[in-house]
Amino acid sequence: MDMLNRYLSAVAKQAPIDERVRIVKLTRSTIEARLAKDLREIPTEEKLVQALLDLGPPTQVVNRFITVPRYIIGPSVYDAYWQILTLVFWTILLTLTIATGVDFIFNSTTNGFQLFFVYLTNILSALAQAFLWITLVFIVFERQGIRIPLKRDWHPNQLPPASKLGGEIHRLEPLIGLAVTAIFFTLFYFVPKIIGLYYFEGQAWHIISIFNLENLPQFLPFFLLLFATSSARELAKLMSGQWNYPVLFVVIICNIATVITTAMLVFESELWNPNFVAEFQLIFNTPAPLLIDWRILQQIIVVVLALILIADSVLNAIRVWSLHKTAAFLDNEKL
Predict the structure, then answer these.
(1) Spatial distance between the Cα atoms of 310 and 308, rounded to a whole number of angstroms
(2) Considering only CA atoms, which of 183, 184, 181, 268 is closest in space to residue 219?
(3) Which of 76, 127, 235, 296 makes the best surface tag, with the fewest CB within 10 Å?
(4) pTM listed for this prediction
């Protein structure tokens, strides 16, 4: 049949040379098996069309039979991957633009052309790093079999295992988490000098930075680690769409990494502006007893963050356990 030959020819063109014969034979036998199972009394040509539609485009057939996948991000998650990249890219672009504007307004000593050059450099660097980390996370998750169902390709076979009601993860939750992560990463990694205490003096605004800007570059890998773990946590929830043990495992590991990394940063004295408290007291004439000791504040920050993430891990563990302690809700509950 002409259509079958055309289809097999297209498959052969897409297949690697060393696997071409094997893939074409597998494709032909698959099509013939489908035709043999189709007992409808309709023309063979129509049966063939339906069989080819079921198999999909030649590229998908090759990717299904090929020994080693030829793609980095597979077709099953590509649309979601592109949507998340777009969301993070626009978030970073908007955040950096606003932050650069704030820096220009409150740091009048900065040369406008130099600031614009730094802005472009930061944009390119931020987008490149976001692309790298998100791509790596998608590669790992996809290789582990986690998928994001595509709405237009929905099929009953794509339904997740039956479980109790309430296990869904609304898409908006991880998307907001990714946006917030991108904002914090952009501010702390690329424009940390605008993070501090603002005050008006001498007809101009000034900033007391909370960071020691000279020592900050050596700590930037820790901020990258925070971005990676936070992104992995939200992407795991987004790609699964429901609470289960693999997602719970990723969330707990990322929460632990976040607490450890944050503690390492907070308790590192070289990261922080040593004159922050003194400058604050001098400018605002604040009595020393009213100022919270920085070491106490460090401990409060770490403890609060740890308690929040521990509570998040425990509550999610209870949720997953309650959702999966029975195989399906249909046997135990009435809808």
Answers:
(1) 6
(2) 268
(3) 296
(4) 0.55
Using CA atoms, how far residue 63 sits from 59, 76, 126, 178, 248, in Å, is 6, 11, 33, 30, 30
Residue 195 falls in which region: left (phi positive, over 0), alpha (psi -120 to 50) or beta: beta
Q: For residue 237, give the nearest of 303, 288, 301, 168 by alpha carbon.
A: 168
Helix (H) or strand (E) holding 205: strand 204-209
**159, 109 Cβ separation under 8 angstroms:** no
Residue with tokens 């794509």: 158
Closest CA to 265 of 186, 325, 197, 212: 212
CB distance 189 to 223 below 8 Å: yes
Neighbouring C-beta atoms of residue 145, cutoff 10 Å: 7
pLDDT in tens, 11-37: 887 777 778 888 888 888 888 888 888
Query: In angstroms, rounded to a whole number, what is the distance separating the alpha carbons of residues 286 and 284?
Result: 5
Give the pLDDT band (50/70/90) at residue 4. confident
